[in-house]
């Protein structure tokens, strides 16, 4: 099975129960999966010999009928599946993102039922999903609950609340628990007055400059940190 087949099949399998009966005459989730994948490939740009950046924000324009169907049966669920599929595709193609992957739906009255359009853009954010299995990265890298994130912005907040850049599902974590600031001198971790504290190498800290391979714990959640690696471009 090819990359495109796997990409479409993953979305189709995840959404088939919710959408099996509602997309008979309009667009199908598998068609939207194929469309965002094509947009990702078409807009991916090589920025150097070792790195190709793909758009991280996608807008899918739908007819009023299709938009109503997607909304009534779970636009957030479908968007989430498409986002996960895009991240998997980026890993398979070794694309990089510079911000969080986001998929949104837009109603376009000029489109007929069954027709759609996809646009995309690259927007730098404080954090991006890591798409390489190698911890060596041009951005500092975190691993949390098996997920890896590049710190692509100047500051990243981690916590339990939705206002955090990385949301951790742990009742022992405060809504905004820690902030990581990427500076020329290193990545500075600051505890934001959390209830249960922050631990680096099992030592409670209020502020510390991290070093490569540090282990961090907030609540019951372990976090691994790796420094950025600046490869020779010559």
What does this structure look like?
- This protein is of the alpha+beta class.
- It is globular, with a radius of gyration of 20 Å.
- About 3% of the residues have low confidence.
Describe the structure concisely.
With 234 residues, the protein is an alpha+beta fold.
Query: What's the shape?
Result: globular
Question: Count of DSSP E strands?
Answer: 18
Helix share of residues?
25-40%
Gyration radius over CA:
20 Å
- Give the count of helical stretches: 3
Q: What sequence of helices (H) and strands (E) makes up the elements?
A: HHEEEHEEEEEEEEEEEEEEE
Average of per-residue pLDDT values: 88
Give the percentage of residues in beta strands: 25-35%
First-last Cα distance: 38 Å
Stretches with pLDDT under 50, minimum 5 residues: 14-21
Strand-pairing-aware structural class: alpha+beta
Largest sheet: 7 strands, antiparallel
Walk across the major sheet and give the strand order. Answer: 7-9-8-18-17-14-15
Key traits:
single chain; about 25% helix
What's the structural blueprint in terms of helices and strands?
Layout: H1 3-19, H2 29-43, E1 45-48, E2 51-53, E3 57-62, H3 64-93, E4 95-96, E5 102-107, E6 116-121, E7 128-129, E8 141-144, E9 147-150, E10 155-159, E11 166-167, E12 178-183, E13 186-191, E14 198-200, E15 203-205, E16 207-209, E17 215-218, E18 221-226
Parallel strand pairs: 2-4, 3-5, 10-11
Antiparallel strand pairs: 1-2, 3-6, 7-9, 8-9, 8-18, 10-12, 12-13, 13-16, 14-15, 14-17, 17-18
Helix pairs in contact: 1-2, 1-3, 2-3
